[in-house]
Specification:
Distance between the termini: 29 Å
CATH superfamily of the largest domain: Isoleucyl-tRNA Synthetase, Domain 1
Number of strands: 10
Number of helices: 15
Strand content: 5-15%
Shape: globular
Structural class: mainly alpha
């Protein structure tokens, strides 16, 4: 949102990991839930499969669609059917959750589409790397420390990634002839470059930190250094309730989903708090803190400033009537009447907004916007509080309409920037709060 507002052409894309071992595990897990829906006793979910109850409705849907027919097939025939239905069901959940968080993508890109017949786009992309001189046959040195059980001292097809900034050359083909996960990255990166993007931003979980250098090397190799790639790592979120950690167990399938959090506290607190720090900083999300009405709750503090602005407008209408108010330009023309240090402080903070947007966009750091909105709200609230103690500093002065017009123009500017900034964050700018 910030990049688009700053004038960049932006495409928001979601990469669907619908190929590989995890998808086969998903299919087997759903097949078990399907049999459970038919009335079979499945007992405890075996280790290695996904135990979460979120797969129960998928199993029931399969039972409603196919009856017992999947059970009458050999498992190797049933699993591809189950896999496709499971992927569709999971993507529907993901899309719904993203929409609830006000996240919308123009493109959903399937990893499976890269495989195709005879290796498809992956094989073609590796051929391109080979022609550029970035692929060779060779052996990797053994990893430091204790050798993994699956490590093999063998000749492999390797991406010469150390020549473009990586720590080690990367295998492209497994010992069984299948392509590695990284080989899919090669094809996906080439696809993005061929679509004409000049700058790429990959957003990955913190557990993918080891992928940064290899992806940067890949972008350089495929584009001859013409395409810039930045990988943003997002740290984990720890959930708390009244200061106590919320217990979850992946093994037992017990966890709190993003949708659970949105349903409990609302979209705006989730979005604002996730942006109220750098992406690579851990987030401690306390249900109690994000719903309390205090200065310590950033989203409340910023939205409360928006509501206070509109309360000033309502107060002015009551004092002067609608016909007694003037337009924005006329109010701005009276800004020379604003001489109090608090008013000048608000003006200075407002003047930072255009430059702040440019900096947040160029640095790919949207948290700067969240910080700025909190600072603007704090500056506004401070001056508001001064007005509660000193009548001459109140925004609406019934006995001085000209000064009131100037102050209304200032409040309108604060409201405009808060509305703009909150919209970029994906949150609302309320006109009142109860």
């Amino acid at each position: 949102n910030v990049l688009a507002f700053a004038g960049y052409g932006v495409t928001k894309e979601y990469y669907i990991n619908d190929a590989g071992v995890q998808i086969e595990v998903l299919a087997k897990s759903v097949l078990l839930r399907y049999r459970e829906a038919l009335g079979e006793e499945v007992g405890e979910i075996p280790t290695g499969l996904y135990p979460g109850d979120y797969l129960v409705p998928v199993g029931k849907a399969l039972a409603a669609e196919f009856g017992t027919s999947l059970n009458q097939m050999p498992e190797e025939e049933a699993l591809p059917i189950v896999r496709d239905r499971a992927i569709d069901a999971m993507m529907e959940l993901i899309r719904d959750d993203l929409a609830a968080l006000n996240v919308h993508h123009e493109v959903f890109f399937s990893e499976r589409s890269l495989h195709g017949e005879n290796g498809g786009a992956i094989r073609s992309a590796i051929n391109d790397l080979t022609l550029k001189g970035h692929v060779y046959k060779g052996k990797l040195p053994p990893p430091k420390g204790q050798l993994p059980e699956d490590w093999e001292d063998r000749e492999q097809t390797l991406f010469r990634s150390t020549e473009v900034g990586d720590d080690i050359d990367r295998p492209l083909v497994k010992s069984d002839g299948a392509y590695t996960y990284f080989a899919s990255d090669v094809a996906y990166m080439r696809d993005k470059i061929e679509r004409g993007f000049e700058e790429l931003i990959f957003i990955l979980g913190a557990d993918h930190g080891g992928y940064v250098k290899r992806l940067e090397a890949l972008a350089k190799a495929l584009s001859d250094g013409k395409v810039k790639l930045e990988v943003l790592l997002c740290q984990l979120v720890k959930l708390y309730r009244d200061g106590e950690p919320v217990r979850m167990s992946k093994r037992a399938g017990e966890f709190v989903t993003l949708r659970d959090v949105i349903d409990e506290v609302g979209r705006d607190p989730v979005r604002f708090m996730m942006l109220y720090r750098k992406s690579d900083a851990p987030l401690d999300f306390d249900f109690a803190k994000v719903t309390e009405q205090s200065k310590d709750n950033p989203v409340f503090y910023v939205q409360y400033a928006s509501a206070r602005c509109h309360s000033v407008f309502r107060q002015a209408k009551e004092a002067f009537g609608v016909s007694g108010l003037i337009g924005r330009e006329e109010m701005a023309g009276r800004f020379g009447l604003l001489t109090d240090d608090g008013e000048i402080g608000i003006i200075r903070k407002l003047a930072e907004y255009p430059r702040l947007i440019e900096q947040a966009a160029s640095a790919h750091e949207p948290h700067r916007l969240a910080f700025y909105l909190y600072e603007l709200a704090s500056t506004f609230h401070t001056h508001w509080n001064r007005g509660t103690e000193t009548a001459d500093l109140r925004f609406v002065k019934v006995n001085d309409q000209e000064l009131t017009y100037a102050r209304l123009g200032l409040v309108q500017a604060v409201s405009d920037v808060l509305t703009s900034g909150l919209a970029l964050i994906g949150a609302d700018a309320p006109q009142e709060m109860r």
